[in-house]
Each structure stands twice: as structure tokens, then as C-alpha cells.
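Human: We require from you a protein record containing the residue sequence and its fold in C-alpha cell form, and nothing else.

Assistant:
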Amino acid sequence: MFSTHKLDSARGFRCDLSAPAERLPHFWEHTVGSCHATLALRADWQAQLARAHRELGFEHVRFHGILDDDMGTLICQNKQLLYSFFNTDQVMDFLLSIGMRPFVELSFMPKTLASSGKTVFRYRANISSPRDLASWETLIARLVGHWFERYGRAELVNWFFEVWNEPNLPAFFTGRAEDYFALYRATARAIKSIDPQLRVGGPATAANGWLTEFLMFCEGEGVPADFVSTHHYPTDAFGRPGDDTEAQLAASPRSGLRREAQRARAQVGERALYYTEWSTSSNARDALHDESYAASFIVKTVLEARGLVQGYSYWTFTDIFEENYFPSLPFHGGFGLLTLHGVAKPAYRAFELLHRVGVELIPVLGAHPTVDCWVIRDQQSVAVLLTNYAQPRHAIATETVEVSLVGCTAHSARIRRIDNEHANPKRLWLEMGSPEYLSPRQVGALHAASRCLARRLHLEADGDDIRRFKLTLPPLSVACISLEMQD
């Protein structure tokens, strides 16, 4: 999958810890994605989300289908419209109980309002525009008004209301751009009728689509857009859905998502920008989702998106996911950070390392074809994050690098690794013979294999305030070195 080249001699990175730092808000913790609303009623889904919130710091969760018929939000029986917000309340009550909030994706179309019978996914979400915009507007006003009464204004002004999902793709919306804009206008009008301070935005498109057109429409028609949202994946621009994922990733630029975020930022100006979906690929059965490749990609991509976005929602936190079918294999290449059994993948551990770092990014000198280095401080601690990353079919090998820290008074350091040998439960599962159904004992062993353990790392001192260390980084790996400064 990955070509190799001969190991180079040690390369160096140097950082002066007294240099002016760049602010690093944890924007990647703003939101995380999930499948569809009905799954949020499952106990295992809830347990995994509570863990992800507790250990990774995620603040909001976004999922499809809050309006789908399987939630019972609006149905028609005996020619009478029946509104029921009980199931939505069960979901929202749970989120608030664990200290999280929803990033509300207002989708898909209740059958009784739909203009066609076209659906998507195994759970048959209707993707048509409404037959009557006034009826849609009434639904949104009643739903948001209900939440306003139940949870209060002080709570709801912290929620985000996003209109639809990827309307620029025929797979998700039967209308044209002007149909979506009309839907957005009706939705925004309904939400603002409850309270002008509630936040509504869109266009929730795939691959940065319609951003300029959306903002031109909103400005020209006087329609509010409190934030702009879109999606990107490194496979977006290379081929079509269903094509060979490895070939798509091989063709993508090494820092492709940063380039896309820069392009989106240029289009939206100073408006708040949220990527409400991104991942290592858009393939729900991509083996790389389960491997250390994903961890190295996540750390590099997140840190390269700094200063460009207000939120960056990884798709998804769990493999409890049923767009195509509900799987049973513990490792099946699903989007999730956690497996069906709640075993942490390398991608989960990457977010765990990122959660622990501080909020000030210090400049680093040095360059390497596949290795990147970031130094982040927080009060008396410093974290050095390194990745050795390349796209599939690109040259990568084990590399040895030396990091020099000027102004460092630490006497010891600890290192956590993610690679083929560390925090890699899939490797143990393969050694087990790839069982489809796991015993409790096997699940326990996989949990143990997923741990990202800290070990001591030798520091070399050069005078009173310079520390150096050498580190060997296998291909597609992450290393996090933690140092505590001494007075």
C-alpha cells in the first residue's frame, strides 16, 4: 500500500520555548458526528458518546434524521397531522445530562410533507423538498418553539441549527440550488420567529459547494446566516463515490484539507465557518479508518486547520452506524473512533492526545518530507507532537529525528505512541483470527491493546536551558512527548 525509501540520517527540529506563541483553541472539540437520530436512543450509543465527551472533550454532536419518520416527529394518520417531540426530547435530555449540546441538522423530509418518494440509506430517509414550504415552516417553528419552552432561551442560544445535509448532491436532495435556498429561507424565518438570537446556518454542502452562491442569496434576500457550514474529505476531488479509495487518497495532496479550508475561508470572509463533516475518507468501509494511518492523518490535519475554522466535526465518534447496514465485524473500516464494542481505535487515541495539549502553539524550525513537528505549551507543561505521514502509495519509511528545545528546564519527559506496535487493537484482533463475534474476554483484551501508555524518554541537557531528544518514528505514526517545566 505504501512504498518505502532508504532510511535517511537524523533530521532536526528546533523550538525556542520563549518565542511568541500562536493561540490554539481546541476547535476540533466543538462538534463530532454520528449516524442518525434514532441511534441516539440506544444505550450503547449513549455510553460511547458520554465517554468521548469525557475523554476527548467534544461539546456538540451532529447527526442526520431528527425529522425522519422513525423519530415520529411528524406523521399523518387518518388524514390528521400528528406532531410528537417525545423521542427528540429523549435525545436532547440525554445530551444535556452529560454536558453536551446538539448541532441540530434539520433533516430529512417527513413522508407526509415530501414532494416525492425518493430516499437514501437503509433507513430510507426521504430526500425530497417539501410539497408546501408553509407546512415545513410550521413544523420547524413548532419543533424549535417546543425546545425553547422546554429548555429555555439561555440554553437554546447555545445550539446550532443547520439546514439539511449535502443538498448539492443528488443522493441527498432532489431539488436544485434555488430549491434549497427557498427551503433555507423558510427554515431561517421559522427559527428566528421563535427568537432572533437563535443561530441558523448552512448550506451544509459537500466539498465546499455553493458557499459563494449561498451567501449571495442570503445577502441579496436579507436572509440571516449566522454561520456557514460545509464538508470535506480527502477523496472528494478524486473520482466518484465507490471508486478505489486507496487510489483517491494517493492522488490527494498531502495537506489537501488545509488547502480546501483556506479556499472556503476566502469565500466566507469573517463569518463563522464550521466543517460539520470530515474524515480520512468518505468510504464507510475503508480499512484505514481502523489503523494508525488515521491517527497520523488526524493530528496533521487538525493542526493544519488552525486559524481557518471555528469548528471541525469529525465523522464519526462510533461505529454504531447503519447507513448501509448494521455491521457485526469488530473492525470493518467504519468511520467511528470507537468500535461497536467501544474499543478505542488509533484515531480515538489521536484525539485523546490532542485533548491533552495546551492552547499556545510555538513556532518550530525544521522541515522533513514526511515528518511534521508541533510544540504546544500550557502553563508549566510543554507537549511535542510528531507525525510521520504520507498518503497511500507515497514513499515513507522509519525516520529518526532530533528535537532541540531552547529555554527548556524539564528534567524528564514521557512519550505516548500510536503506530503499528502501540495503541493498535486491530493488530491483536487479526492475531485472534479476525473473529466476527467477540467474547467478553476478547473484548477486554482489545481494550487493553488500545491503551496509549506513557513511557519515559531520555533527555539530553545542553547547558541549563536546552534539552534534546532523538526519536525514531515508524511510518504512519504519532508520538506525543510531555515535559514538565521546572522553576
The domain at 11-22+360-484 is CATH 2.60.40.1500 (Immunoglobulin-like). The chain has two domains: 11-22+360-484, 26-356.
